[in-house]
Write a structure and sequence with these properties.
By secondary structure, the chain is of the alpha+beta class. The chain has one helix and four strands.
Length: about 80
Amino acid sequence: MIKYIMEKIETERVKETHRYCDLCGTEIKLDNWDAFEFILREGHAYPESGSGTEQTVDLCPNCARKLFKYLREMGIRINEREWFY
């Protein structure tokens, strides 16, 4: 037979409270999720393991549009696909 008891456990967690655009410094409101996070991953990945580095940039919608425009002007093709939940 197994007997259980209920224990109260106090924990701490890290909670994001603010996010700012890395280009213009504007606060990005967390309640409407109008943020663009760009992630660059470099390294090696194999079925059994992998390693590398990750660099991230948070941009507001206005700066993201400017960045996309600039990249297209440089001749970089940006792949676009639709998504929804």
